[in-house]
Amino acid sequence: MEGRPKESGTKKASTGGGPPPLHTVKPMGITIFNRLFATVYALAILALFYHHTKTLLCSPTLVSFSMNLALSLSDFVLTFMWISTQTFRMCPVYRKQFPENVEKVMKRSDFPALDVFICTADPYKEPPIGVVNTALSVMAYDYPTEKISVYVSDDGGSALTLFSFMEAAKFSTHWLPFCKKNNILERSPEAYFESSHPCTSETEKIEVRYCKIIYVFIHKRIFSTYTRDFNVVF
């Protein structure tokens, strides 16, 4: 749901003139009910504040005045919170995207550059193999290679995370061409190999390489945990 958008994309899609649309917008039928409810609710709030004002002016003691003032302030805060959420309900829409039309509108060489930042900290709470899968899936985007940059920020400075990405860099030389060649949609290796993917000789080779990364990662993690918990020096 979004605010009121420009209608140019929808009009071009309906008339057939100009370039193919990148998206279409369709208003939701619930709009009229949202606006009607907001009107009734706003009138009720005004009546409530009228009651609070009348009660404050007619408070016989300081204690009752303080209590009524506190109630008025709390209702004011709640009213502000309610008003701040109504902009999303005044004109809700359905938006449908057509990513296949992007290359019909502009050349791939004209695509904007993308910078993707992946942050991690503790390799024991956030296993590096999961961060590796995220980085590999982003690198395998159907996007010009020279236009996308992936940055990994390891706040913990873990050698385990560094070693995992060194192994992932080797695996990426096989995984990325495999995704582009076979038009893979599930570009995270973990998600792809857990799905019902077609079994071919090429797929089996890629899966063996990925399992090797997992095995090495687990071995390194056990070794790192052992040296950390028992302070073993080798």
Question: What does this 3D model show about the protein?
Answer:
With 234 residues, the chain is mainly alpha-helical. It has 2 domains: 89 residues; 124 residues, no CATH class. Helix content is 58%, strand content 10%. The protein is built from 8 helices and 4 strands, in the order αβααβαβαβααα. The radius of gyration is 29 Å and the shape is elongated.
% residues in beta strands: 5-15%
Biggest sheet architecture:
2 strands, antiparallel
List the uncertain runs. Answer: 1-15, 229-234
Oligomer: single chain
Morphology call: elongated
Count of extended strands: 4
Total DSSP helices? 8
Radius of gyration: 29 Å
Distance between the termini: 58 Å
Report the structural category: mainly alpha
Number of domains: 2
The overall pLDDT, averaged over residues, is 81
Task: List the strand order in the largest sheet.
Answer: 1-2
Q: Determine the fraction of residues in helical runs and give it as a percent range.
A: 55-70%
**Order of secondary-structure elements:** HEHHEHEHEHHH
Question: What's the layout of helices and strands?
Answer:
Blueprint (H helix, E strand, L loop, with lengths): L7 H8 L7 E5 L3 H27 L4 H25 L6 E5 L4 H4 L8 E7 L7 H12 L8 E7 L4 H24 L6 H6 L6 H30 L4
Parallel strand pairs: 3-4
Antiparallel strand pairs: 1-2
Helix pairs in contact: 2-3, 5-6, 6-8
Short overview:
With 234 residues, the protein is mainly α.
What are the defining features of this structure?
single chain; 234 residues; mainly alpha; two-stranded antiparallel ribbon; two-stranded parallel ribbon; 8 helices
